[in-house]
Structures are given as structure tokens and as C-alpha cells.
Amino acid sequence: MRILTIETTCDETAAAVVTDELRVLSSVVASQDQLHQRFAGVVPEIAARAHVERILPVIDEALRLADVKLADLDAIAVANTPGLAGSLLVGVVAAKTLCAAAGKPLVAINHLHAHIYACRMAAGHDVFPCVGLIVSGGHTSLYRCSAPTDFEYLGGTIDDAAGEAFDKVAAMLGLTYPGGPAISRAAERGNPRAFHFPRGLATDRQRLDFSFSGLKTAVRYAIAGPGKPDFAKARLSGAQIADLAASFQEAIVDSLVTKSLLALDATQLPALCVGGGVAANRLLRERLAAACQQRGAQLYIAPPELCTDNAVMGAIAFERLRARKTEALELDALPGLIRSPKDEGARTKGEG
Ligand code: KG4
Ligand code: ZN
């Protein structure tokens, strides 16, 4: 079987053709980084318009590279939750239209679950059951992943997401968007112990939650001090930027590793799968590898290009297709953040 997968949840327009043996026949990603750079973050309206321009060429290219015609497909899958409303809509409407025109089944993809499935794609073998850590621009969450179609929310950030903190701190330091790679580059020359930044909720062993807004504020105060709102004008030397970036990265990685280990303890699951753009971070990968090795847990992290948004991870759609979970053409985009088990439940309602 071959399916087309479509991903437009945020600011990447992506499409892929994958087989039920999880072979990737093509993968196309059109990034919008350059469009959002001057705003130091994703502007939803700009993202939606760029998706409209790019979606058909990206799908065409994915089909061409895979040497597959629309008629050859067994289904079309699209990420319909969570994400930016306008961005999601473009992918959902494109998928529904193609399904209606070609008479193909439609499959819904949960973008966060797909980020964990990227680990399954990269591993080449089953990775479930596992603890799933999703660290992206909008989400930082821990899940009990009993099976690819059975995710239970264990905890997550109560304010900013890890990627969001990277992006906002990068903007404060005058670094480019997206902030993650820029901070990680600047941190290479810095001292991670130059500043001691807070690890929000890290010492609370009762909660599998994260908090990064205090960390963000601490960086802001380290730059300009409280009561000096014009911190953007603070003149920082290259060495100061490097030290701030390294100390910030150290704090965020520390929090993520601590709570991941706590989730492994709490669930007694044998493996940790990590997905989302921040999982491309080198320090995080190294620290998680060391921590999991010491603990005797298996660690799965996809290569960086499968951590950031892509359509290959949409192969999770095969798991639903096998369970005969296809959608009517009324399928809608469900934007909004997932910040509690209640939110997660609302997205997976009706799944057995
Ligand atoms: O998963 P993703 O591509 O999109 C969302 O679903 O949000 O994640 C994007 C986020 C951005 O905040 C970006 O700064 C961050 O991932 N990111 C990184 C790295 N590469 C991307 N953060 C830290 N280190 C990186 N190397
Ligand atoms: Zn993502």
C-alpha cells in the first residue's frame, strides 16, 4: 500500500509518499523560515498564505519523486491537530479535495503523535510501548505511549514550550529565527555555568510538568536587570551572548532530562522516544543518551530532519488505516494547544 501524507500544522509545507512497510518513496519540505525571520517568530497569517501558495507544488513534487499517480494511492492522510488554525486548514482542505476527486479514503494525523512516530520510522523496528517526550515550538509534553494509537497524556509545560523559549530568548539575544539552532551554535563558545538559571518545577517529583517562562524572565533580567524595560538596547558582547546562550540551553536541557527520567520511573516503561524540533538539539541528544544508558533505558531519537516538521512521520496514518479509522469529508482542523489530559482526550475522542 502507498499513501500520501500532508503536513501544514505550523510553518512547514510538507508532503511525503510512504508504503505500509514504512519505506519512504519521497519527502518534500518547504520551509518558511525566511518569511518569519524578521518577526522573530511565526506569524499565523503569513504562514497560512504561504501554505496556500506552496501546497499544490509540494504535493506534485512528492508524487513525482515517488513516481506515483494520485490514482495509485491507497489513502491520503493529513495532520489536522494541533497547530495554527489557518495553517491546518490549508492541509485539511487540500487532503479532503484530493480524496473527493480521486475517491480515496481520508486519514487524520495527530501532529504530536506523529512526532513520536518519527522515532519508529528512524528505528526501523517497533519502539512501543515507550515514554514519549515531545519538544516542539508549541508543545513540551510527556506521554505514556502504549501503542501507536494509544497515547496517554502524563504532563507538559504549564506556560511556554521549550522551542518557544529557545525562539524568544534568541530574539532577546539578537540571534536569528528559528532560535533553537542559533542558540545552540552560540552556546558552543559559551560557559554553561556562567549564569545559574532556574529549572522550573524540576525538583517537584510529584509532577511530570514543565515551566519555562521563569527561565525566560531570568535570562531577560540577566541581560538588562529588573525595571529596565528597554533591554533590547542592551549592548552584549559576543562572549556574553555565548555565555547566556550556553547557560540557558543548560537549564532547559537539564529540566527536560530530569522529567524524562521521572516519567520512566513513574511508568516503568523500558524506552524513551523523543520527537519535535527541539529534539534536534545536540546537547539534549547527548544528555539523554548518557542518562538513558546509565538507567538501562532504550533511547530513540530520529535524525534531526525527522525531528523538525516533516510529512514522513505522518506514516503513523497506516496504524489508523489498519484499524479502519478513516474520516468522513466533514473532517475539520482542530487547532489549540494541548495542556492537559482533558485537551488530549478531546482530540482522540472516538478512538478505541
Ligand atoms: O516540531 P517543530 O519543527 O515545529 C512545531 O511543531 O512547533 O519545532 C520547531 C521548534 C522551534 O521552536 C525551533 O527553535 C526548535 O524547534 N528547534 C531547536 C533546534 N532546531 C529546531 N531547538 C533547539 N535546538 C535545535 N537544534
Ligand atoms: Zn511539530
Walk me through this protein's architecture:
This protein has helices at 33-36, 44-66, 85-102, 111-123, 162-172, 179-187, 213-224, 238-267, 282-295, 304-307, 317-322, 341-347, and strands at 2-7, 12-19, 24-31, 75-81, 106-110, 130-135, 140-147, 150-156, 271-275, 298-301. The model has no long low-confidence stretch (mean pLDDT 94). The chain is of the alpha/beta class and 352 residues long. A 5-stranded mixed beta sheet has the order 3-2-1-4-5. Strands 8-7-6-9-10 form a 5-stranded mixed beta sheet, with helices on both faces. 52% of the residues are buried. Helices cover 43% and strands 18% of the residues. Bound molecules: 5'-O-[(R)-(carboxyoxy)(hydroxy)phosphoryl]adenosine and zinc ion (ZN). 5'-O-[(R)-(carboxyoxy)(hydroxy)phosphoryl]adenosine is lined by residues 10, 136-138, 163, 166-167, 178-181, 184, 276-278, 280-281, 308-309.
User: Gap between N and C termini, in Å?
Assistant: 23 Å
Structural class: alpha/beta
Bound ligand species:
5'-O-[(R)-(carboxyoxy)(hydroxy)phosphoryl]adenosine, zinc ion
Q: What characterizes the major β-sheet?
A: 5 strands, mixed
Secondary-structure element pattern, one letter each = EEEHHEHEHEEEHHHHEHEHHH
Number of helices: 12
Sheet-strand content, in percent, reads 15-25%
Q: Tell me the number of strands.
A: 10
Mean pLDDT: 94
Give the radius of gyration: 20 Å
Strand order in space, largest sheet: 3-2-1-4-5
Tell me, what's the shape? globular
Q: Portion of residues in helices?
A: 40-55%
Low-pLDDT sequence parts? none
